[in-house]
Amino acid sequence: MDSAFIPEGVKRCPFSQFLAGLGVVGVVLAWGIYAMLLCWLKGLNQTNMNDSYGFALWIWADLAIIALGGGAFFSGFLKYIVGKDELKNIINFAVLIGFICYSSALLILAIDIGQPLRGWFIFWHANVHSMLTEVAFCLSCYFGVLTIEYIPLILENRKIDKIPFFHNLSHNMHEIMAVFASTGAFLSCFHQGSLGGVAGVLFGRPFAYREGLLVWPWTFFLFTWSAAAYGPCFTIFLTRLLEKITGKKLVKDNVIDLLAKISGWMIFTYIIAKIIDTWYWAAVTVHSKGQTLMDFYDDNMFYGLWILVAEIVVGGIFPALILLTKKGRNSEALLWTAVILACLGVCINRWVMVLQVMAAPVLPFEDWALYYPSWQEVATTILPVAYGIILVMISYRYLPIFPQEKELNPIESY
Amino acid sequence: MTQEYRKEKKYGMVIDLDKCTGCGACMVACMAENNVPFRDNETDKLKSITWMRVYQLNNGKSYPNEEICYLPRPCMHCEGHNGHSPCVTVCPAIATDYDRETGIVSQIITRCFGCRYCMGACPYHARYFNWWDPVWPDGMEKSLSPNVSPRMRGVVEKCTFCFHRYQLAYEKAASEGRRELRENEYQPSCTQACPAGAITFGDLINKNQAVYKMKKDPRAFRLLERLGTNPKIYYLSSREWVRRAGDNYHPDEETGIVKNHR
């Protein structure tokens, strides 16, 4: 039925099966939209946030998906600036993932503010000293860049490409894509960093506060570094997942191997920096405030030392060591393990830099504040996942996301 | 132009915890004065709005050695380092500001879009979010203060040191041809309501005012001084365990080791 829109030389499932899949995910999407409307119409009393938890699940989701979406800017940086040409075979998918992650982050931010109709104040009455202002500007600009990077992909649809204007537009956009990729890498460094800065500048919250360089706390650099390190793992994870679902090989092993190797080195160097940061924070920063490391990992129901070990050892050192070795990268099971652990590791990092900051008491006579999200918060957090799945389904079906798919999966009748 | 004529002030409080009985009159006066909203069910204190909140502290010992102390906690109106309060610097839309003329940290309700970053930045939990629109019991809206706008759902609010009283006092002084206020002309509602006289309010840098002398009392301390928030609320207590409860200390450290910004 829609065969005229499907890229030449590739096979797709029947249209009815595609529609059925869309319908199932669409139900989840509708659930999330319903929760989103509740939050907009009735207010944030629909959540379980409170005056101790001004930032909660949504801000974590924001930080996490932006870190995971970091594969887009870092792959673009590697391909267009460093010159790793093999990555052209995965860059489209990385851009698509980045587009989904960043559009989702903006949507979540729009739900998270108490007065959504005043959201534009952040641009109009911008406080240049606030890390959140930097986040808003860089995030919006980079989303614009990702949109520009995604448009040529849409224009490459078989039907659209037949229109000379769109064909030429797509060609010309590809020609100057290095400029946008460079701009994106530049913007990304700042917004990933400023997201780290959001927590790092909180000098009233010793758990989050970090010293730093000029106006940037160390978390500014650590967040950028970790997004570049862990983002490609998410790209690899989703590529492999899509290969499992479609039952096809979509990207050649050498491309995955290259990205995995670079990611491994990035995680390895990042985790060393993270360990130094944690040690300095515990030994110097926190100590100067009259507290100790164990003040933040003890005497509560949830935040034990296990979470620090899970973040640094299980989600950092383990995946780094696997990805650094050829044997680890070549083993399907080990590669899966590494990318899953890496994704969990960066998500835990973002979790503690949002939720644990809010949970840990600062006044000596206060207790830990623990929180669990309401169903509305959960539904609106799943909403972007459903939206992402739908966009991947549509893009994979109608757009040449994977340039090597045709070669790797030849069709007999062709 | 006004800055050329008025002297810089740093309004603040000295709260004598030896006098505080924990009666809560300051909390009630604050809510009535500032049209602070409340709900039918206020059992979830993490969603209650209490610009002035009285904490109950204890020395951690059991009877008969147990001791209690009540600690009223308004907004600390932190000066931070050179006016960089924890909450002011983070607000992305300049909806909160450090007024260098009075030392008061303002909250611009109509500018706030409810991102709650300032709440995360404040270590004192002195900032509150309006999770609901205010609903007043029938007839009560007629008794609301006409000088303070009620806040709508979705914005952050906090103690303003009853800034509207400062404006009224200043208007009165100006009409009498004065540029400076007398010590008792501007007093927040909590200060006036305290039956024990535990709260003293004034200009912390004016040598002629009571708070200037009181903050130099050997019993004086501030909450979380080590963080560098530089708060303008001083507490007095003759009990060592109370002074120690005001900040985090290592076991080998003595209280009151931070004397900066005084």
> What's the SSE pattern of chain A?
HHHHHHHHEEHHHHHHH
Strand order in the largest sheet of chain B: 8-1-10-9
Helix content percent band of chain A: 55-70%
What's the mean pLDDT score of chain A?
92
Largest sheet of chain B: 4 strands, mixed
Overall mean pLDDT score of chain B?
Answer: 93
Give the largest chain-chain interface (CB within 8 Å).
A-B, 50 and 56 residues
How much of the residues of chain B is beta strand, in percent? 5-15%
Which stretches of chain A of 5+ consecutive residues score pLDDT under 50?
none
Looking at the structure, what is the overall shape of chain A?
Answer: globular
The CATH homologous superfamily of chain A corresponds to Formate dehydrogenase/DMSO reductase domain
Structural class by secondary-structure content of chain B: alpha+beta
CATH architecture term of chain A: Up-down Bundle
Total number of beta strands of chain A: 2
Cα radius of gyration of chain B in angstroms: 19 Å
CATH architecture of chain B, by name, is 2-Layer Sandwich
Structural class of chain A comes to: mainly alpha
Percentage of residues assigned to helices of chain B: 10-25%
SSE inventory with pairings:
The complex is a heterodimer of chains A (414) and B (262).
Chain A: H1 15-42, H2 57-68, H3 70-82, H4 88-112, H5 121-124, H6 131-155, H7 164-175, H8 177-200, E1 212-213, E2 216-217, H9 218-246, H10 253-288, H11 305-324, H12 326-330, H13 332-359, H14 375-398, H15 405-408
Antiparallel strand pairs in A: 1-2
Helix pairs in contact in A: 1-14, 2-4, 2-13, 3-4, 3-8, 3-9, 4-6, 4-14, 6-7, 6-8, 8-9, 9-10, 9-13, 10-11, 11-13
Chain B: H1 2-5, E1 11-16, H2 25-33, E2 53-58, E3 68-73, H3 86-90, E4 96-98, E5 105-107, H4 117-121, E6 128-129, E7 156-157, H5 163-175, H6 189-193, E8 199-203, H7 210-214, E9 220-221, E10 233-236, H8 240-244
Parallel strand pairs in B: 1-10
Antiparallel strand pairs in B: 1-8, 2-3, 4-5, 6-7, 9-10
Folded structure, characterized:
The complex is a heterodimer of chains A (414) and B (262). With 414 residues, chain A is mostly helical. Chain A has a single domain (49-371), classed as Formate dehydrogenase/DMSO reductase domain (Formate dehydrogenase/DMSO reductase fold). Chain A is built from 15 helices and two strands. Chain A has a two-stranded antiparallel sheet with strand order 1-2. The model of chain A has no long low-confidence stretch (mean pLDDT 92). Chain B contains eight helices and ten strands. Chain B has a single domain (2-244), classed as 2-Layer Sandwich (Alpha-Beta Plaits). Chain B has helices spanning 2-5, 25-33, 86-90, 117-121, 163-175, 189-193, 210-214, 240-244; strands at residues 11-16, 53-58, 68-73, 96-98, 105-107, 128-129, 156-157, 199-203, 220-221, 233-236. By secondary structure, chain B is α+β, with helices and mostly antiparallel strands. Helices cover 19% and strands 15% of the residues of chain B. Chain B starts with a helix and ends in an 18-residue tail after the last helix. Chain B has a four-stranded mixed β-sheet. A two-stranded antiparallel sheet of chain B has the order 2-3. In chain B, strands 4-5 form a two-stranded antiparallel ribbon. In chain B, β4 and β5 (105-107) form a beta hairpin. The model of chain B has no long low-confidence stretch (mean pLDDT 93). At the A-B interface, α5 and α6 of A face α3, α4 and β6 of B.
